[in-house]
Amino acid sequence: MAKVCVIGGSGFIGRHIAEQLVREDHSVLVPTRYRETAKRDLIPLPTVDVVEADVHDGEMLERLFAGCDAVINLVGILQGGKPASPYSDAFRRAHVELPTKIVGACRRAGVRRLVHMSGLHAGKDAPSEYLRSKADGEAAVMSVRDELAVTIFRPSVVFGPEDQFLNVFAALQKRLPVVVLACPDAKFQPVYVEDVAAAFVRSLDAEESFGRAYDLVGPKVYTLRELVQYAGRVSGHPRPVIGLSDRMSYWQARMMEWVPGDLMSRDNYYSMQLPSTSDAKLPFGIVATPLEAVAPSYLGGATRDARYSAMRLGAGRGARGS
Question: Which residue segment(s) compose the domain that 32 sits in?
Fold first, then answer.
């Protein structure tokens, strides 16, 4: 049994990773700002300990990591607020400064295994702040690969029962007579959350993954329009989808920055200029799960959070694409 600290373990992907770690007889430590909320979601898992902590405090990270065999970092944000050069302070804090602090705390606490989640096509010359900041986070992690056994995963959009992607599109179409969609031809290769979780968990003892980065994608490429139409059809509320031109997509994204809830931004628009696709196969013998094999089981009853997001989104008469 190993002890694994999962930073971001109370989120959508983190909960699935925690569940798989427990099934593999590992003990799991999940630090969070809101212990009671996270504990409610994770309490059925017998070897998960949820603690209230500020993960941006380097000294606290060191104390959390003491006695841990591995650390998994899942923290990421899609909205960065006011842009700066080369990206906003919010992106810098979540995607660059936090991984740097995690690396330092691992070294001081004697943790020798670190698994980090980045984003598909992260790069220093990428069109969005999100992807550029993710690239700098990767660099911080890979800078210590001679000292720590590090692995990076770069997923496309992740789907599953609690996702805020397909669920939002389904809930939106229950409320609106038509969907006005930015970047309708943007391409995605959605990957199932359980496949993502399996990659993280199996990588812990996979020496061939040390010092490497992996793209995580599903078996099929879709346009954003196709995904929205599929969510509406399977949920029983298909609506006409009006795709906006590139210029109008940009202006919709700009206007949506004024809608409460961080539903879409120009940076999301810039991210969608790159296809979120890859020719890579899932590692460790994992067979990618088709979206059609899973989504019908949950799209009929979109989650409460997705319905709330759709209510806010409906006020802006648009759909989020990233």
Answer: 3-155
pLDDT in tens, 120-157: 999 999 999 999 999 999 999 999 999 999 999 999 99
> What is the total count of domains within the chain?
2
Q: Mean pLDDT throughout 187-195?
A: 98
Specify whether 178 is located in the same domain as 61: no
Same domain for 22 and 138? yes
State CA 28 to chain mean position distance: 20
| Strand positions, DSSP E, the chain | 3-7, 27-32, 48-52, 70-73, 113-117, 149-155, 158-159, 179-181, 187-188, 191-192, 212-216, 222-223, 241-243
Report how far residue 317's alpha carbon sits from residue 72's, in angstroms, rounded to the nearest whole number. Answer: 38
**pTM, full prediction:** 0.90
ω into residue 86 within 30 of 0, thus cis?
yes
Tokens of 237: 């509320």
